[in-house]
Amino acid sequence: MDRVIERPMWRRRRTLLVAGALAAVLSTAGLGAAVLSGTKSSVRVPAQNVTLGTVERGVFHDLVVLRATAQPKDVIYLDALEGGQVQEVLAQAGDLVAVGQPLLRFRNTELELEVLDREGRLVESITQLQTYEKQLEDTRVANEKAAAQIAYDITRLQRTAERRDALAAKGYVSRDLYDQVHDELDHNRKLLPLQTTSNAEQDALRRRQIPQIRSELATLQESLKVTRGKLDSLVVRAPVAGRLTDMDIKPGEIRNRGQRLGQIVADTGFKLQAQIDEYYLERVRAGQTGAVTIDGHEVPVKITRVDPQVKNATFQVDLAFEGAMPRGLLPGQALEGRLTLGGDRPALILPAGPFLERTGGDWVMVADGGGSHADRRRVKIGRRSADQVEVLGGLAPGERVITSDYAAFEKVDRVNLAKKK
User: What residues are paired with 263 via a beta bridge?
Assistant: First the structure.
């Protein structure tokens, strides 16, 4: 009897298709894993295009390079206090001027009329206060005279009454004359305390008013002085001795109140201003010392002020010369030098280079012994100077590191160094 012979499971079409697909997936995955595990991203560069620095034990010099410019210590700005039309120019930019020397004269008719009007009103107010003060003094004198007159009348009447009392006892004086003297005497005796009280009250009032009047007089006198001084401000004078700069004014020009006219560089010497990388902001302090080179000689300097505001990745410091001011300095003159941040100490050091700008000191490219390639490695660095980097971990003495720019290395793990054939 015939029967159907079935194919084994492993020879069926669907089974063969599934097995083939699974084998392909496993093969691809295995190949990818092998590639990923054995290959690093790399870039090929000529060996002569990179700079290698050697890690070695030495002395770390905690210094910062200074690139400073000489600036005048004191610059006095000249502004127009009142302004007007330039009548006369009495000094030019570049001239050495003395204190109080006239530099410029303005003409301002409107201001002159205003000053005359205000001066007249102030003089009138001063005159009124002085007249009132005189009236108070005249009243005081009149009151004292009145009290003195009453006291005199009492004395005179007492003597008259005593004589008439003796005569009246003998019948030589009439009763009317006797009463008249005694009535006048009684009246003046009653009038004296009233006059004395009135004088005291008026004198107390005068004593309170006199200081106020004199204070107002002083204020008015000062206002009068200021008002008259407005005309004096039409002549611009040098407030300090020095060299006049930045003044380019011609007769006939109109300059408004508050407008900048020029400046005077005072003859008080120079200071230095330097820009330092923001990396050192936390370590730079006022009082730290350094030196700059002038005409081949090192001149000691000291930081006097640190401006913590960062601009263009730098901050500014002001430095003063320690000792005598160097001769021959010019405004804006560039000077090279160094700033000491700390003491020298033994350390594992690496030459500084442009690589720090890209890596921040977090990683470096370390060359192999033969110099055929360099691999990325995480490192830990400490202090930096213009020439050195302190290595705290990740590198050993004798190893060589690429210290030139890492612009092409940021996304690679290996740099293959191609040598000339």
Answer: 77, 245
pLDDT number for residue 361: 86
* DSSP output for 194-257: HHHHHHHHHHHHHHHHHHHHHHHHHHHHHHHHHHHHHHHTTEEE-SSSEEEES----TT-EE-T
Structure tokens at 52: 């290698």
CA distance 376 to 385: 23
Best CA proximity match to 399, nearest among 361, 362, 351 = 351
Q: State the residue range of the domain holding 177.
A: 109-232
- How many Å apart are CA 178 and CA 161, to the nearest integer? 7
Going by C-alpha positions, the residue among 366, 350, 349, 372 that lies closest to residue 406 is 366
Q: How far is residue 269's CA from residue 321's CA, in Å, rounded to a whole number?
A: 10
Residue 130's closest CA among 228, 236, 210, 232? 210
Report mean pLDDT in 10-residue bins for the chain, 421 residues.
Answer: 48 53 50 46 90 93 88 91 91 92 92 87 90 90 92 91 83 81 90 91 90 90 85 90 90 92 88 90 91 90 94 93 84 89 88 88 91 92 86 93 91 88 63
Write down how long the chain is. Answer: 421
pLDDT, residue 315, reads: 95
Give the integer Cα–Cα distance in Å for 72 and 37.
65
Amino acid found at 384: R
- Number of domains making up the chain: 4
Q: Look up the pTM and report it.
A: 0.53
Q: Which CATH number does the domain housing residue 303 bear?
A: 2.40.30.170
Do 339 and 377 form a contact (C-beta atoms < 8 A)? Answer: no
Q: Is residue 17 part of a domain?
A: no
Is 253 in the same domain as 172? no
Whose CA is closest to 147, among 191, 187, 201? 191
Same structural domain for residues 166 and 141?
A: yes
**Residue 119 confidence (pLDDT):** 86
Q: At what angle do helices 109-169 and 175-232 cross, to 10 degrees?
A: 170
Q: What integer pLDDT is reported at residue 168 of this predicted model?
A: 78
Separation CA 89–CA 80 (nearest Å): 14
The whole-angstrom separation of Cα 180 and Cα 186 is 10
Q: Does residue 83 contact residue 261 with C-beta atoms inside 8 Å? A: no
Residue with tokens 């669907």: 14
Give the Å distances, CA to CA, from 46 to 5, 373, 399, 416, 417: 71, 11, 20, 8, 6
